[in-house]
Design brief:
Radius of gyration: 26 Å
Keywords: Methyltransferase, Porphyrin biosynthesis, S-adenosyl-L-methionine, Transferase
CATH class of the largest domain: Alpha Beta
GO biological process, one term: methylation
Family: Belongs to the precorrin methyltransferase family.
Bound molecules: S-adenosyl-L-homocysteine
EC number: 2.1.1.107
Number of domains: 3
Strand order of the largest sheet: 3-2-4-1-5
Number of strands: 19
Helix content: 25-40%
Protein name: uroporphyrinogen-III C-methyltransferase
Shape: elongated
């Protein structure tokens, strides 16, 4: 039997800027993404709307899947899917059990690829302003697990000499490790730091000494998942709190939009200022109905005068895809008229190298429909879309996005791990308060907010942000 491919991919510590290009490309192409607790849900925004998302981490109150179950899952999924992406926090081979998964895939004859990731061992200290090596201060760093169990003594003998000690999974054992290190001649006054949820909006860090770190972290409620750094670099101030000082650090924004593509354009600006962004989009909630759109595009390509009115950026994208699928050169669509409901959607039209003819089709374009099209009766190059719409007898049709998306095909055994996008968003929302933005017309995305359990209050705010979003993208 022929298997699809599995990619074991490092996702980095959470910040989207730390996802490698190869990792992003694979997530974009994946039919299935199997992800862990430490993978930021933001990174799943790159997945195709129809991709199956499977959570393989430990849910609150539940047991995590056993490692052998995850291995069986990957092999199983590769039977039915061309590309399965196993997305893991940090680097897959740094305490990530990537080698075990690779061995299981090899044993089953499943072709795989390994994509290294940015490990939290180096990146999380960096996001807290701590360099792991520093000229004149630290010439070496050792990365160790705090979960050494019975082997802790020998483990510490081996690493105690490193000038910088980086501990992963070390929060629970920190008091014992601190004692053991002191017994090996490491001064209790050695600077030490703990960084929780590095590179995320919820990043928090504490700097203390080897002797005081555990108590200080506990007092401030800082704990797992965290990276612990022990050594003089932990007191270094060269970098300052560069990440935590970004103007939007700690802000969380949830964007309601037509498509992930539209949301990502906005996310980039907010993230550059230090915010964390998630999105809830129509393209994940519903499937686009394309047959009618293709028929209208084909009419246009055969010289008929057709007007398209776009109400959302997803509508614009669906239209562009229909043109591309039909294999038409845009120059053949000379009789087409294009209208956009607002500045945001007009921007989406311009992004595709086209200029909208009319800005709004009034009442028609305020309805929750992605694309309207009209065949102007008069025909000819000068036919005006708005006039044609108003004229009685003009053939006006609309494309809705009303068909529910079919559930992705996943063997029954693994279905409990399946996560709908609204679950992913709801989980992210449970992490803390977020600002809510509607891109484009808030009325069009209202059902999305309801789907993730947000009520009227949230939507009032979304209205205000909708205006701001429009200005931000289309202003000047
Ligand atoms: N493969 C991962 C490590 C997995 S072990 C990597 O290369 O980063 C899990 C441990 O990694 C956690 O207990 C914590 O110590 C650390 N970790 C991973 N991501 C983190 C983050 N964003 N912030 C703080 N610690 C993190």
């Amino acid at each position: 039997m022929a298997y699809g491919r599995v990619a074991l991919v490092g996702a980095g510590p959470g910040h989207p800027g730390l996802l490698t290009e190869r990792a992003r490309a694979l997530v974009e192409q994946a039919d299935v993404v199997v992800y862990d607790r430490l993978v930021s849900p933001r990174l799943l925004m790159y997945a195709k709307p129809e991709a199956a998302l499977l959570y393989a981490g430990k849910a609150p109150g539940c047991h995590a899947l056993a490692q052998r179950d995850i291995e069986a899952m990957l092999v199983d999924l590769a039977r039915d899917h061309a590309l399965v992406v196993r997305l893991k926090g940090g680097d897959p081979l740094v305490f990530g059990r990537g080698a075990e998964e690779a061995a299981a895939l090899r044993a089953a004859g499943v072709p795989f690829e390994l994509v290294p990731g940015v490990t939290s061992a180096v990146a999380v200290p960096a996001f807290a302003g701590i360099p792991v090596t520093l000229r004149g201060v630290s010439r070496s760093f050792a990365v160790a697990t705090g979960h050494a169990g019975d082997g802790l003594q020998a483990h510490l003998d081996a690493i105690a000499g490193a000038e910088t000690l980086v501990l992963l999974m070390g929060v629970a054992e920190l008091p014992r490790i601190a004692e053991e290190l002191a017994a090996r001649g490491v001064s209790p006054d050695t600077p030490a730091a703990m960084v929780e949820w590095g590179s995320r909006a919820k990043q928090r860090s504490v700097r203390a000494t080897l002797a005081t770190l555990a108590a200080e972290a506990k007092r401030r409620g800082i704990g797992s998942p965290a990276v612990i750094v022990i050594g003089h670099v932990a007191a270094d101030a060269s970098l300052g709190a560069w990440f935590e000082s970004l103007p939007r650090f700690g802000e969380r924004h949830l964007l309601f939009a037509s498509s992930a593509r539209e949301a990502l354009a906005h996310a980039a600006r907010l993230e550059a200022e230090g915010a964390e962004v998630m999105a809830c989009t129509w393209d994940r909630a519903r499937a686009v109905r394309v047959a009618e759109l293709e028929a209208a595009v084909s009419m246009a390509a055969h010289g008929r005068s057709v007007g398209f009115a776009f109400c959302t950026a997803l509508g614009v994208e669906a239209w562009r895809c229909a043109v591309q699928r039909a294999g038409f050169d845009l120059r053949r669509l000379g009789n087409v008229k294009l209208a956009a409901v607002d500045g945001y959607v007009a921007h989406a039209v311009r992004e595709r190298g086209l200029v909208p003819d009319a800005r709004s089709l009034g009442e028609m374009a305020r309805l929750p429909v992605e694309v309207w099209f009209v065949e102007a009766q008069s025909g000819g190059r000068d036919a005006d879309v708005e006039a044609a719409c108003a004229a009685s007898g003009a053939d006006v049709r609309s494309l809705h996005l009303l068909e529910p998306r079919p559930a992705p095909a996943v063997p029954a055994r693994w279905r409990p791990c399946l996560r709908a996008w609204r679950d992913v968003v709801a989980e992210w929302l449970a992490d803390g308060p977020a600002e809510l933005w509607a891109l484009g017309d808030p009325a069009l995305v209202r059902p999305l907010a309801v789907e993730v359990g947000l009520g009227g209050d949230a939507l009032r705010r979304a209205d205000a942000f909708g205006l701001a979003a429009d200005e931000a993208v289309c202003g000047a």
